[in-house]
C-alpha cells in the first residue's frame, strides 16, 4: 500500500514560539490557554488571588494565562442545566453551531448513504467517564457491547493517549484497531503489497491472538528518553500531594486532577523544569493533565489518516469517517476531517468549547446511544 511520504515520515516539528512572558524554552508549551472561564473556575481563580503565601510562580503563571488554563482545562462534572446559571443560554447558542449528533442523526446518515462508515473513538471521557483515578476509568459492559456491535458493521479504531496495551486492557475487544500514545503506536492490518512493512518505523508482528499485524511506532527512538523522563518526573513530583505520573509508552502524563488548586503552580513549574533538559520533548495538555511527548510531527489526526490508508478507506467518495473524542488532543483529528472535507468530528462535551468538530454529544452515555443508533440504522 502506498502512503504519502508525509504520512509515514514524521519530521521534527518547527520550534514552537517561545512563551516570552515566562521565558520558557520553546518545547515547554502546551496548547494556548484559550479556554473560557466559567463561574466555578473564575471563583477558584479569585480565591487563589486572595490567598496569602501563594507561591510567586502563580502570578507569573497567571500572566501567561497558564493557571486559568490548568483550572479550566476540564469542564465541571455538573452538566449545564436550565437551573445552573445563565451560561445555559450560551450553551444553547453553542449547540446551534455544534448540534447534537443524536438529533442530527438523520443528517449524518444521509451523508453516509452509499458509503462505508469508518469509526474512530477516543477512550477517556468518550467511552468511559472521567474519574479521579486514571486506573479506574473502566468502561461499562453495556458500552463494550455497543462498541462490539458497531464494529461488526463498521471498521472501528480506538485512538487514545494511553499506551496501546493499557487501552486494550480496558476495552478488551480484539475486533478493533488500536492506536495508543496519541497515535504513536498503531497496530493495524497487514495487507498484500503492504509498504508499511518495509518502513523503518513499521514492523510485522503477531497480536495476542497470533494474527499477523503491522506495528507502526514512529517515535520508537524516543523510548529510552521517555522512560528516563518518566522516572525523573515521578521523583520530582513525589512531594506534590495528589499528583501522579503515568507512563504511556511513547508519552508521559502528569496528572493534577487530585492536586489542590493552590499547588497547580508547583506541578506546572516542576514539569517545565524537567523538560528544560529535554529539548526533543514537548508539552501539551489535556483534561487536568500535562502530556510530555516527542517533538515529532505526529498526532491523532495523522493516526486517523494513517489508519484510513492502511485500511484502504481513504477514498472520500466511498467512506465517511466519524471521529468521536472529548479533549484537545482529539482536535487534531477533527481538524484533519474538516480539512479533508471528509467525515465528521463529534466533540463529547457538556460545556461549550472551541472545536473543529461538526457535532457534539454531551457525555459517554450519549456516545453509547449514538453507537446504538448506528447499529439500528444499518
Ligand atoms: O486520549 P484519551 O483516551 O482521552 O486519553 C487521554 C488521557 O486520558 C486519561 O486521563 C484522563 O482521564 C482520567 C480518567 O478519567 C482522569 O483521571 C484524568 O484527569 C484525565 O486527564 C489518561 O490517564 C491519560 O494518560 C491520557 O493521556
TrEMBL record:
<comment type="similarity">
    <text>Belongs to the trehalose phosphatase family.</text>
</comment>
<dbReference type="Pfam" id="PF02358">
    <property type="entry name" value="Trehalose_PPase"/>
</dbReference>
<dbReference type="GO" id="GO:0004805">
    <property type="term" value="F:trehalose-phosphatase activity"/>
</dbReference>
<comment type="function">
    <text>Removes the phosphate from trehalose 6-phosphate to produce free trehalose.</text>
</comment>
<dbReference type="InterPro" id="IPR003337">
    <property type="entry name" value="Trehalose_PPase"/>
</dbReference>
<dbReference type="GO" id="GO:0005992">
    <property type="term" value="P:trehalose biosynthetic process"/>
</dbReference>
<dbReference type="InterPro" id="IPR036412">
    <property type="entry name" value="HAD-like_sf"/>
</dbReference>
<dbReference type="InterPro" id="IPR044651">
    <property type="entry name" value="OTSB-like"/>
</dbReference>
<comment type="pathway">
    <text>Glycan biosynthesis; trehalose biosynthesis.</text>
</comment>
<dbReference type="InterPro" id="IPR006379">
    <property type="entry name" value="HAD-SF_hydro_IIB"/>
</dbReference>
<dbReference type="InterPro" id="IPR023214">
    <property type="entry name" value="HAD_sf"/>
</dbReference>
<protein>
    <recommendedName>
        <fullName>Trehalose 6-phosphate phosphatase</fullName>
        <ecNumber>3.1.3.12</ecNumber>
    </recommendedName>
</protein>
<keyword id="KW-0378">Hydrolase</keyword>
Amino acid at each position: 500500500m502506498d502512503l504519502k511520504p508525509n504520512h509515514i515520515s514524521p519530521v521534527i516539528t518547527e520550534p514552537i514560539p517561545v512563551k516570552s512572558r515566562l521565558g520558557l524554552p520553546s518545547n515547554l508549551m502546551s496548547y494556548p490557554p484559550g479556554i473560557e472561564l466559567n463561574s466555578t473556575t473564575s471563583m477558584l481563580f479569585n480565591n487563589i488571588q486572595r490567598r496569602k503565601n501563594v507561591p510567586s510562580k502563580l502570578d507569573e503563571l497567571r500572566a501567561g494565562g497558564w493557571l486559568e488554563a490548568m483550572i479550566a482545562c476540564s469542564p465541571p462534572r455538573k452538566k449545564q442545566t436550565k437551573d445552573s446559571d445563565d451560561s445555559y443560554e450560551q450553551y444553547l447558542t453553542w449547540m446551534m453551531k455544534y448540534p447534537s449528533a443524536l438529533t442530527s442523526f438523520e443528517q449524518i446518515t444521509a451523508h453516509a448513504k452509499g458509503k462505508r462508515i469508518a469509526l474512530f473513538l477516543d477512550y477517556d471521557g468518550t467511552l468511559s467517564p472521567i474519574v479521579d483515578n486514571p486506573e479506574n476509568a473502566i468502561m461499562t459492559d453495556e458500552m463494550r457491547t455497543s462498541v462490539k456491535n458497531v464494529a461488526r458493521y463498521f471498521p472501528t479504531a480506538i485512538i487514545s493517549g494511553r499506551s496501546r496495551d493499557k487501552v486494550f486492557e480496558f476495552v478488551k475487544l480484539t475486533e478493533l484497531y488500536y492506536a495508543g500514545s496519541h497515535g504513536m503506536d498503531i497496530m493495524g492490518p497487514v495487507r498484500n503489497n503492504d509498504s508499511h512493512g518495509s518502513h523503518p518505523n513499521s514492523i510485522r508482528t503477531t497480536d495476542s491472538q497470533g494474527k499477523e499485524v503491522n506495528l507502526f511506532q514512529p517515535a520508537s527512538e524516543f523510548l529510552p528518553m521517555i522512560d528516563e523522563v518518566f522516572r525523573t518526573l515521578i521523583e520530582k513530583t513525589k512531594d506534590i500531594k495528589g499528583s501522579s505520573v503515568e507512563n504511556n509508552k511513547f508519552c508521559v502524563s502528569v496528572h493534577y486532577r487530585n492536586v489542590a488548586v493552590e499547588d497547580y503552580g508547583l506541578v506546572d513549574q516542576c514539569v517545565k523544569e524537567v523538560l528544560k533538559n529535554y529539548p526533543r520533548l514537548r508539552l501539551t495538555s489535556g483534561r487536568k493533565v500535562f502530556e510530555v511527548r516527542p517533538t515529532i510531527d505526529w498526532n491523532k489526526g495523522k493516526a486517523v489518516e494513517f489508519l484510513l490508508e492502511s485500511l484502504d478507506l481513504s477514498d472520500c467518495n466511498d467512506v465517511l469517517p466519524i471521529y468521536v473524542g472529548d479533549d484537545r488532543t482529539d482536535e487534531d483529528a477533527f481538524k484533519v476531517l474538516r480539512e479533508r472535507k471528509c467525515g465528521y468530528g463529534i466533540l463529547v462535551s457538556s460545556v461549550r468549547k472551541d472545536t473543529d468538530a461538526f457535532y457534539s454529544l454531551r457525555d459517554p452515555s450519549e456516545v453509547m446511544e449514538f453507537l446504538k443508533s448506528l447499529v439500528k440504522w444499518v
